[in-house]
Specification:
The complex is a heterodimer of chains A (112) and B (114). Chain A is mainly beta. Chain A is 0% helix and 54% strand. In chain A, the strands form two sheets. In chain A, strands 2, 4, 5, 9, 10 and 11 form a six-stranded mixed beta sheet that branches. A five-stranded antiparallel beta sheet of chain A has the order 1-3-8-7-6, with no helix packed on it. With 114 residues, chain B is an all-beta fold. In chain B, strands 2, 4, 5, 6, 9, 10 and 11 form a seven-stranded mixed beta sheet that branches. In chain B, strands 1-3-8-7 form a four-stranded antiparallel beta sheet, with no helix packed on it. In chain B, a hairpin with a 6-residue loop joins strand 7 and strand 8. The chains are: A mainly beta (112), B mainly beta (114).
Chain lengths: 112, 114
């Protein structure tokens, strides 16, 4: 059973517009959530994280929102740039030292 | 910051052969993780070390897989009697000890079993 779900395999956005990537989770013990970006032939690169005590974390063009009651998080990228085109993975963990559980990823394509 | 280094980048082997991969974590990181990623999937957790101690192993890690981290520095992942289903990208990651530190991944070793 998938504990972290990214239900949209792909998303296409025009340059300058907002990209919204969504993630749902089922394990109520998860308390730390992360987004990673992956380019072909490279390992995932850490983007932004949020702990369960917060509902929003912002870093430049990237903002992550957490809705604990809905077990849902989202990543907003604004404005989107062509260099943002990559696979985005949502990940979650249930405490210090526990394994990160990843979703299947969403491929974002930003066209100029 | 040299990042997490993995060697080799690519490995092609015949079914039944043994293979070994190496991971050098970021130097001050005491936690080290191995993940496996197949096409269309996210990374799947295999095992985790804190210093030299292997603290957790996934049920995905069959008896043919063994990982070590002598002296709490680099780590090796060995797969014995490889099968075609072992073909995947093997990713290593490291992190600092404090709670909720993000994992930093290497570029992986792509294994192809023919």
């Amino acid at each position: 059973d998938q504990q972290v779900k990214q239900n949209s395999p792909s998303l296409s956005v025009q340059e300058g517009r907002i990209s919204i990537l969504n993630c749902d989770y089922t394990n109520s013990m998860f308390d730390y959530f992360l987004w990673y970006k992956k380019y072909p032939a490279e390992g995932p690169t850490f983007l932004i994280s949020i702990s369960s005590i917060k509902d929003k974390n912002e870093d430049g063009r990237f903002t992550v929102f957490l809705n604990k009651s809905a077990k849902h998080l989202s990543l907003h990228i604004v404005p989107s740039q062509p260099g943002d085109s990559a696979v985005y993975f949502c990940a979650a963990s249930a405490g210090a030292g526990t394994a990160l559980i990843f979703g299947k990823g969403t491929t974002l394509s930003v066209s100029s | 910051d040299t990042g997490v280094s993995q060697d080799p980048r690519h490995k092609i082997t015949k079914r039944g052969q043994n293979v070994t991969f190496r991971c050098d974590p970021i130097s001050e990181h005491n936690r080290l993780y191995w993940y496996r990623q197949t096409l269309g999937q996210g990374p799947e957790f295999l095992t985790y070390f804190q210093n030299e101690a292997q603290l957790e192993k996934s049920r995905l890690l069959s008896d043919r897989f063994s990982a070590e981290r002598p002296k709490g520095s680099f780590s090796t992942l060995e797969i014995q009697r490889t099968e075609q289903g072992d073909s995947a990208m093997y990713l290593c990651a490291s992190s600092l000890d404090p709670e909720n530190s993000p994992l930093h991944f290497g570029n992986g070793t792509r294994l192809t079993v023919t």
